[in-house]
Known about the structure:
Keywords: Methyltransferase, Transferase. The structure is a single chain. The chain is 40% helix and 15% strand. The model has no long low-confidence stretch (mean pLDDT 95). It starts with a helix and ends with a strand. Strands 3-2-1-4-5-7-6 form a 7-stranded mixed beta sheet, with helices on one face. It contains 11 helices and 7 strands. By secondary structure, the chain is of the alpha/beta class. It has helices at residues 3-6, 8-20, 29-37, 49-72, 88-92, 106-115, 157-170, 183-191, 212-216, 239-248, 252-255, and strands at 77-81, 99-104, 123-126, 144-148, 174-180, 221-227, 260-265. The chain has one domain (3-265): Vaccinia Virus protein VP39 (Rossmann fold, 3-Layer(aba) Sandwich), CATH 3.40.50.
Amino acid sequence: MTPVEDSLFLTLCCRALDNRSPHPILGDEIADEIVRTLDHDYERLNTTTNLVLNVALRAKKIDEVASRFIARHPDAVGLDLGAGFDTRPARITPPPTVDWYDVDLPEVVAAREHVVPDRAKAHTISADVTDPDWLDALPTDRPAVVTADGLMGFLAKEELGALFDRLIDHFPSGELVFNGYTRFTIWVARHSRGTKSVADQVKFPGMDDPREPERWNPGLELVQEMLISRQPEIARFPPVLRAYYRLSARSTSWSRKGTLVLHYRF
Ligand SMILES: C[S@@+](CC[C@H](N)C(=O)[O-])C[C@H]1O[C@@H](n2cnc3c(N)ncnc32)[C@H](O)[C@@H]1O
């Protein structure tokens, strides 16, 4: 795998470690099962407790948006862009009327077939999401919920904008939910121990204003900026991290220095 593709091990490993903690935030048993099965050098990932908690909690918030959308739209199409080895279909269990697609680069999709257990599999699409044609195979007459966890940092701002334009043009309506990066969190991603393995692959410069995508495409409307520091699950964080996030929750600009999940409708 290329370093960009290889980045999937970091988030996968964080979800597995969350599952092994006494009080998991996400509790993704299949991620843990995959990690136990694969012969991969997880030590070199340098995960930290803080990163594990943030990765688990952002996945939970993205899952919640997707689940609510599917409950309201049982005819929906679901997409996970840059799905890696994520097991979202098993966590949110879409009904058979929903078509869920896990999208990633060809090497990852090919490996996913062998690595992800059947109970977490959905349709797959092998594609570079910056390619203009990959959406052609998907229905155009059904509402769509589009998730992306850990992808945004690998796309240039123009690529992300063009991707949003294509999704909005393709589907009649839908929602987008992904973890966002401010300029500060991009700087941290480039310099911290936990994300050092992917630092050189980061193309996104960061986005400090969650309303910025509304200016890229007038069809897009911000539903919510979810600041991790203000989520109720912080109560389950270990004492020092809990105290830090409780304090930072008092300030929006401080909270934006941490993990955030952006949710839009179109
Ligand atoms: C940090 S990993 C996250 C994987 C998964 N979403 C998760 O949470 O475990 C980023 C993923 O994005 C994929 N990716 C990066 N650039 C991509 C692109 N242009 N098109 C499709 N997938 C891409 C990588 O192959 C990788 O699987």
